[in-house]
Design goal:
single chain; mainly alpha; Ferritin; 3 domains; two-stranded antiparallel ribbon; 28 helices; globular
């Protein structure tokens, strides 16, 4: 079983490369199989052979052609197995890191060895005393850590078993056919249950969940299930089941069953859309055609868009299907005379809840589910949101609706919609699914251009930020573009720049930071990203340039000044939230700073290419960044994480200034230790601290109170 530290720092780059390699092998073999089946095999069957050799030769040609198909299918299984393993390990790593946030909210800290302790404000004491409540929570966290580590090991073991089965010589040269048959048998087992719809018992739903959870990532299983059920049958199943269940009181256990079924079925359908089968192509077309149809005899039943949208809250859907589905849904909303998105909930108070992920979101708005699906597909989200008409409609013009239950209770569906929109914006600009902690990649021109549009709009309309979890999505986008934000404040040649830089207006950057920094979680994300970028930029100055002493000192000071500006704005935002708006407690900000370290790991783990000064490029900054610098930041963070909340805004500014200076100095010392500069480390650290202070002092000029 992996240890906490092994999974927390798990490097998946090798597995990611293997998935890409096997995708190419699968595609190459698919092309050969198509040629063999469409050419060699077709001609052999059409040939008018006769004589003693005819039967033997024809069978030989058929066998060879079939083997190409088996090779293609087996390569597809290897690819899917590795891809599933990658997804599983990413998810385990993400959930393990998320426990750090849960721990911080309870005043606890997870050490590298996985032990949960109470952090001590005294640097000479290893840990503080736990209250009874903290002791109980610590045990619960320890159990959750063990569960995630066990799940990681199980996922690895399952993938290893599949690959061993494929390599087993006792089953002949290819195992694809038997494995596909097993998947189809499992699908056939639950099809009768899916066809019963609203008649299902709780025990039968539990059976469905068990098999769907195990098989939802298998393309053969998922595609067979979807095509046998049919597009209309898929929609009818979920519509009828949710409608029937709405007719009687729902307890917590039943809610959980339905939530799991919604997630498992959505995941399976997403997997199915990656099938190359012609039957799935037809299923996808039919699903889109059914979007604007009512699925029942009266207004108590939903439309096709709504049912499919509710299932899209889970699963990774194919790019081509998502873009086509999105075109259809967007055309329907914009092309229907007098249409208002609030009409999705106006089918009558009898419309049954379709979604069970959140009590506040009944699943009536199909655009919310579509945005969630885009959030897990960066290619599709960028294609959809890069179009100016789509961006303007979804971000600026569309009313994200609030709904009512049958008894008139208000549901905050609008907040869920804004949250889903934020997830789509994240994946479209950062290049990875919103719920995946994959390190930043070398961004594309389109991603940078879309980020510019986002900063321009929300920087001009700060009142549009505070809906749902949109603030934190924008904070994560800003964290990924921290290099560009700092360059908007300080246009200096010494600041490292991405290969595809984004150009932000400094005033709009300041507005965004001023508003986002008032939220504790967003504050933690942004501060860790700023400090990490400062560390990368300092390392680049010291180790990637042949500066003389004076030039190095000036460059280090400028780099630290840019970071100080961001830190200063965030300290103003923090003070404003605590004292002017009474929107948060100062201790909340301290906790979120502690749990924002995932962004430090994301940026530092990727590093700077010292030869060209661009960020990010993998594997160049070295182990010092992830181990030494994150540790240095962590020690500084513990000084900031005082048990006593700040009593006045000046104390927040002072502590923020101290932190900015200490982090800049620590980053400089670490960079000196990893390089070969002749400049004295203390002198350079002093220049860094001075620059950070100079930038931090500009906070009052840059901070924007409105919004």
């Amino acid at each position: 079983m992996p240890t906490y530290e092994e999974l927390n720092r798990l490097d998946l780059s090798g597995l990611e490369a293997a998935v890409e390699d096997w995708a190419r092998v699968r595609n190459d073999l698919a092309a050969l199989a198509d040629q063999a089946e469409g050419g060699l095999l077709a001609r052999a069957r059409e040939a008018a052979w006769s004589g003693e050799n005819a039967g033997v030769t024809r069978r030989f040609v058929e066998t060879v052609a079939e083997r190409f198909g088996y090779a293609r299918d087996e390569a597809a299984i290897v690819h899917r197995t590795l891809e599933d393993l990658l997804d599983s390990q990413r998810d385990c790593r993400r959930r393990l890191r998320a426990l750090s946030e849960d721990a911080a909210e309870g005043g606890l800290y997870i050490q590298p060895d996985g032990r949960v302790v109470v952090p001590s404000p005294d640097p000479y004491r290893p840990q503080g005393e736990a209250t009874a409540e903290q002791a109980e929570f610590s045990l619960a966290l320890t159990g959750r850590i063990a569960e995630i580590l066990s799940e990681s090991q199980e996922s690895d073991a399952q993938a290893a078993q599949v690959l061993r089965d494929l390599a087993d010589d006792g089953h002949g040269p290819f195992r694809a056919a038997p494995l596909r048959a097993e998947a189809i048998e499992d699908a056939q087992e639950i099809l009768p249950l899916l066809r019963r719809g609203g008649e299902l018992t709780d025990e039968e739903i539990a059976t469905l969940n068990d098999l769907l959870a195990r098989r939802a990532g298998n393309v053969d299983f998922a595609a067979y299930l979807a095509t046998e059920l049919g597009a209309r049958g898929t929609l009818d199943f979920w519509s009828e089941l949710t409608h029937e269940r709405a007719l009687r009181p729902r307890d917590a256990e039943e809610w959980q069953l339905l939530a799991e079924l919604q997630a498992n079925l959505g995941t399976a359908l997403g997997t199915a859309t990656h099938s190359d089968a012609a039957a799935m192509d037809a299923w996808e077309e039919q699903m889109i055609d059914l979007g604007d149809e009512m699925l029942g005899a009266n207004q108590d039943y939903p439309m096709g868009y709504q049912v499919m949208g509710s299932l899209m809250h889970s699963g990774a859907y194919d790019t081509e299907f998502l873009t086509a589905y999105g075109d259809s849904l967007l055309d329907y909303e914009r092309g229907t005379d007098g249409f208002d998105p609030r009409q999705w909930g106006d089918s009558g108070y009898g419309l049954s809840r379709l979604s069970f992920g959140s009590e506040d979101d009944p699943g009536f708005d199909p655009m919310s589910g579509f945005m969630e699906a885009l959030g897990r597909n960066p290619e599709a989200s960028n294609q959809v949101l890069y179009r100016v008409d789509n961006f303007d409609y979804l971000v600026q013009q569309r009313t994200w609706p609030t709904f009512f239950t049958g008894d008139g209770v208000t549901l905050n569906g609008a907040e869920s919609g804004y949250t889903a929109l934020g997830h789509a914006l994240e994946s479209a600009t950062l290049g990875h699914p919103y719920d995946d902690d994959t390190p930043l990649h070398s961004r594309t021109v389109r991603e940078a251009a879309l980020a510019e549009r986002i900063v321009d709009y929300y920087g001009s309309n700060p009142e549009a930020i505070g809906h749902g979890d949109l603030t934190n999505s924008l904070a994560r986008i800003s964290a990924g573009y921290m290099a560009d934000i700092e360059r908007s404040f300080l246009d200096s040649a010494v600041l490292v720049s991405p290969e595809q830089p984004a150009s932000f207006d400094y005033g709009k950057s300041a507005v965004l930071l001023s508003v986002m920094g008032r939220d504790p979680e967003a504050y933690g994300t942004l501060l860790q990203a700023q400090e990490s970028y400062t560390a990368l930029a300092v390392d680049n100055v010291i180790n990637a340039h042949d500066y003389d002493t004076a030039e190095t000192l000036e460059a280090v000071q400028q780099v630290s000044q840019g970071g100080g500006m961001v830190s200063g704005i965030l300290s103003e935002a923090r003070a404003y939230a605590v004292f002017d708006q009474s929107a948060a407690q100062d201790a909340e900000f301290n906790q979120r700073v502690q749990t924002g370290a995932s962004w430090a790991e994301t940026l530092l783990g990727y590093g700077v290419d010292r030869t060209v000064g661009n960020v990010p490029v993998a594997g160049t900054i070295g182990n010092w960044a992830v181990s030494g610098l994150v540790n240095a930041m962590g020690e500084n963070l513990m000084h900031d994480n005082s048990a006593e909340a700040a009593a006045m805004s000046d104390e927040i500014y002072a502590r923020s200034m101290d932190r900015a200076q200490e982090v800049a100095a620590a980053a400089t010392r670490a960079a000196v230790a990893s390089g070969a500069t002749d400049v004295d480390a203390d002198v350079l650290a002093g220049a860094a601290a001075s620059g950070a202070a100079e930038g931090h002092d500009q906070r009052a000029r840059l901070f924007v109170r409105e919004g």
